[in-house]
């Protein structure tokens, strides 16, 4: 049977349609990138003005002569506690879903709940932790802030771990089991090493997810204008400090807010690029 000849008018119509949609696509890309670079450029220009040695060495409180040492330290403590809570829990649940509950109804329910939690508003998590940790203790505290951020981090690490473990071929598991290894040994010695790059990427993305959150901390750790190391007391964080300083009438605080925002943005950018490089190293994308 001879190939059907496509009329020239149809070909021209297809080319015209393709050109229109291709033009619209590039136009959308151009608008999106223009807005992105405009925001980053503005943030960079304003943020550089507030970066100085006092920003990292002095404690805030004085609008004319202060820094963000308390916010950097507090943010580091809260983030560290968040990692201690969120990373082990996320990885363990991901292992359970991928290795023990892959075909069970209960495992599917947990997986669906984690999908919902990925899109949960962060302020709702903050209110929830406020009810269960802040009110019973009678005060805002850094531990509650870490718990609220960990709840946001866990679904990211959980889904990444689960998906990476699903990519490990079942033949590797079967070979290890055939050699007499118990299931827990197969997971520790065969499955996890094979998926370590993907899991590490999930951890980095999870950290990038929570490091810029503000709403949960407003309801949990709140803020503090002094240097504090007690996790059961209110503690400063960069994000809440940025929010408060940006709304203040003091020019010096506004400069410091832009400087802190620039530092957080660069950290998230660095974390995202690191995760991408790790994936490229593993999968040769």
List the helices and strands and how they pair.
Layout: H1 8-50, H2 53-57, H3 69-100, H4 105-118, H5 122-137, H6 142-167, H7 170-178, H8 183-194, H9 196-210, H10 215-219, H11 238-246, H12 251-283
- CATH fold name of the largest domain: MetI-like fold
Decide which structural class fits the backbone: mainly alpha
Percent strand equals under 5%
Helix count from the secondary structure assignment = 12
What's the number of structural domains? 2
Shape estimate: globular
Cα gyration radius (Å): 25 Å
Question: Unreliable segments (pLDDT under 50, ≥5 consecutive)?
Answer: none
Provide the residue-averaged pLDDT. 90
Query: What is the CATH homologous superfamily assignment of the largest domain?
Result: MetI-like
Q: Level of helix content?
A: over 70%
- Mind telling me which CATH architecture of the largest domain this is? Orthogonal Bundle
Query: What can be said about the biggest beta sheet?
Result: none
* Helix and strand pattern: HHHHHHHHHHHH
List the keywords.
285 residues, mainly alpha, MetI-like fold, 12 helices, globular
Write up what this structure looks like.
77% of the residues lie in helices and 0% in strands. The protein has 12 helices and no strands. Helix 5 packs across helix 6 (142-167). The longest helix has 43 residues, at 8-50. The radius of gyration is 25 Å and the shape is globular. The mean pLDDT is 90.
